[in-house]
């Protein structure tokens, strides 16, 4: 009897914790239904999409890293430590990368859905290769991205 | 007499000097099994290349002023690599070709026009291509009467029908675009006319980004996710377009975001999830539109400034207006709009209701918080609620109102024409019937 209740309790605990996104992992993009939290544009270019995942398990999706930055500025409480994680995707593979670990290629003429010109990569080599292939632009890491002036700020 | 004519004669001979230029222009014929590219290489500016029917498996690079014309059944197949036709010269005409099988890179296209001006792309069929026609850093090109579809895949994997990146003065007319990502994409462009095009079953019918001075007239966008998507642009005119059946659950007829100076006039905005949505829109004029049978007729989000709405018909929208954000007046001070859920009186008989129409009822606000309350649409309790709110109008978040609501719908021009045609036939039948009856009566009398 006790065993049964115990098992039931365990199962319900597993169920409840399963519902919460406590690990703050990013979520798959569904281009059919997902739209950018900031600008309402559909997430058609999946590899340019970004996400903010909060500690409460909320997931906010954006079509462009510029929109995510605008959102985080508006929702100041998300900047507190461990309140939220920001994710970008490696443009080549679509792999999710934490913003702090990602590298970016920037040039105003690089195409992105909202034309902010910042293209993200999982490592420095890929970003450098992109800049080399395009014949223009610069590589930004997390620290230099923080200082970057976004098109929506101008 | 001769003296008078002399200058004329000189001009005449001078003109003759210029004409022979054209007689050097040659006409080449490319037969099945030959290479079109080789003909292009052998041609000179001003030459014409006629292509016989058949499948030509090659990619073309056009770098001189030539005219390429295909007969019915002339197919150029790019073999799935890069652009099928690349144009880097001005004054080129490409006509009557079927262009298929481009590569699948982001910018791979059926026809790619790069830094080239005044080209005419006319009556071609483009299919199984990533983008249909891509026009980058070019001016005054004309894209007329083409039929464009992308490849068989989800719209997030396809390219656009016609993509314009940085350029002025293009004319897009009578193109038929189906199953692409965005039908017509304006990316940092200016001074473009878009007339009589038809875009369906794509993500956005037309997508305006960072563009200005664009006229879109008599186009039909239907069954896309969103019909007309305008972002970060200015000076856009939408005249007499049909924006219908965007019934995707996050779809809009027209969505205007962070854009100023938009004219929306004489359009039919029918059967969309949301008819017209403004978010951070300024100086928008919305006149004489039919906004009917949408899930939500009019939506305001965020801050919208200095927008006027006059003589629009809001009819049969499940939720006529869904309002959040700032206070705003909807009429222009003389005339407002017709709202079919407005129920007040016109005591003075001037066609304008005596009481202001308040947009965004309590029910709409409830719906925003609890979308499933949609279930109670038109239920007695909701009706009572709405009525009670009309009597005590103070719960509102944003005060958006039409101070000059019209008590009768505005007669639209297109509608009037339809009616006159529609009435002709029953009228004629009626007259015939009356004549027949009279004939029978008279004849019958004589017989009896």
UniProtKB/TrEMBL annotation, chain A:
Pfam family, one: NosL
Coiled-coil stretches noted in the UniProt entry, renumbered to this chain: none
Entries under PANTHER family matching the protein: HTH-TYPE TRANSCRIPTIONAL REPRESSOR YCNK (PTHR41247:SF1)
Name of the protein: Nitrous oxide reductase accessory protein NosL
Originating organism: Mesobacillus jeotgali
UniProtKB/TrEMBL annotation, chain B:
Record key words, sorted: Membrane, Repeat, Transmembrane, Transmembrane helix, Ubl conjugation pathway
Signal sequence interval, chain numbering: none
Keyword Iron-sulfur: no
SUPFAM superfamilies linked: Pectin lyase-like
Pathway: Protein modification; protein ubiquitination
Domain Carbohydrate-binding/sugar hydrolysis positions: 43-187, 250-357
Pfam family, one: NosD
InterPro entries: Carb-bd_sugar_hydrolysis-dom, NosD_copper_fam, NosD_dom, Para_beta_helix_rpt-2, PbH1, Pectin_lyas_fold, Pectin_lyase_fold/virulence, SCF-Subunits/Alg-Epimerases
Positions of transmembrane segments: 424-442
Claim: Repeat is one of the keywords in the record: yes
PANTHER family, A to Z: F-BOX ONLY PROTEIN, F-BOX ONLY PROTEIN 10
Record's protein name: Nitrous oxide reductase family maturation protein NosD
Gene: nosD
């Amino acid at each position: 009897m006790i065993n049964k209740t115990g098992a039931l309790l365990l199962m319900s605990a597993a169920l409840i914790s399963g519902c919460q996104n406590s690990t703050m992992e990013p979520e798959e993009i569904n281009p059919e239904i997902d739209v950018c939290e900031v600008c309402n544009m559909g997430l058609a270019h999946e590899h340019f999409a970004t996400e903010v995942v909060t500690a409460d398990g909320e997931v906010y999706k954006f079509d462009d890293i510029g929109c995510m930055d605008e959102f985080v500025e508006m929702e100041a409480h998300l900047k507190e430590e461990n309140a939220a994680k920001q994710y970008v995707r490696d443009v080549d593979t679509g792999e999710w990368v934490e913003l702090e670990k990602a590298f970016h290629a920037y040039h105003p003429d690089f195409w992105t859905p909202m034309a902010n010109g910042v293209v993200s990569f999982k490592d420095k080599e890929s970003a450098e290769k992109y800049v080399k292939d395009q014949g223009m632009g610069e590589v930004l890491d997390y620290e230099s991205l923080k200082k970057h002036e976004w098109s929506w700020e101008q | 007499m001769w003296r008078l004519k002399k200058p004329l004669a000189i001009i005449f001979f001078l003109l003759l000097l210029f004409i022979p230029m054209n007689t050097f222009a040659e006409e080449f014929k490319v037969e099945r099994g030959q290479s079109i590219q080789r003909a292009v290489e052998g041609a000179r500016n001003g030459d014409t290349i006629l292509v016989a029917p058949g499948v030509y498996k090659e990619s073309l690079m056009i770098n001189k002023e030539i005219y390429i014309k295909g007969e019915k059944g002339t197919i150029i197949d790019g073999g799935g690599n890069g652009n099928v036709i690349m144009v880097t010269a001005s004054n080129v005409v490409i006509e009557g070709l079927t262009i298929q099988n481009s590569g699948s890179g982001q910018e791979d296209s059926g026809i790619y026009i790069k830094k080239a001006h005044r080209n005419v792309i006319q009556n071609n069929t483009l299919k199984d291509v990533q983008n249909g026609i891509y026009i980058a850093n070019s001016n005054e090109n004309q894209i007329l009467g083409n039929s464009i579809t992308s490849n068989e895949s989800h719209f997030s994997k396809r390219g656009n029908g016609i993509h314009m990146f940085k350029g002025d003065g293009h004319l897009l007319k009578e193109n038929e675009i189906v199953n692409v990502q965005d039908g017509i994409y304006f990316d940092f462009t200016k001074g473009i006319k878009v007339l009589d095009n038809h875009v369906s079953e794509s993500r956005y019918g037309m997508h305006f980004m960072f563009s200005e001075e664009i006229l879109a007239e008599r186009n039909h966008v239907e069954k896309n996710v969103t019909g007309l998507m305008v972002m970060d642009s200015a000076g856009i005119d939408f005249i007499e377009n049909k924006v219908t059946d965007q019934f995707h659950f996050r779809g809009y007829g027209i969505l205007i975001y962070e854009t100023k100076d938009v004219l929306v006039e004489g359009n039919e905005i029918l059967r969309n999830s949301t008819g017209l949505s403004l978010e951070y829109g300024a100086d928008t004029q919305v006149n004489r539109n039919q906004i009917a049978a949408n899930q939500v007729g009019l939506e305001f989000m965020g801050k919208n400034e200095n927008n006027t709405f006059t003589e629009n018909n809001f009819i049969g929208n499940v939720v006529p207006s869904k309002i959040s954000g700032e206070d705003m007046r909807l009429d222009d001070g003389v005339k407002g709009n017709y709202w079919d859920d407005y129920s007040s009186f016109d005591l003075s008989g001037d066609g304008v209701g005596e009481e202001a129409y308040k947009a965004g009822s309590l029910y709409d606000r409830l719906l925003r918080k609890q979308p499933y309350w949609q279930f109670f649409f038109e239920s007695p309790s909701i009706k009572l609620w709405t009525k009670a709110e009309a009597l005590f109008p103070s719960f509102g978040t944003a005060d958006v109102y039409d101070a000059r609501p019209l008590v009768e719908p505005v007669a639209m021009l297109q509608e009037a024409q339809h009616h006159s045609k529609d009435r002709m036939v029953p009228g004629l039948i009626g007259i015939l019937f009356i004549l027949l009856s009279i004939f029978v009566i008279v004849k019958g009398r004589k017989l009896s």
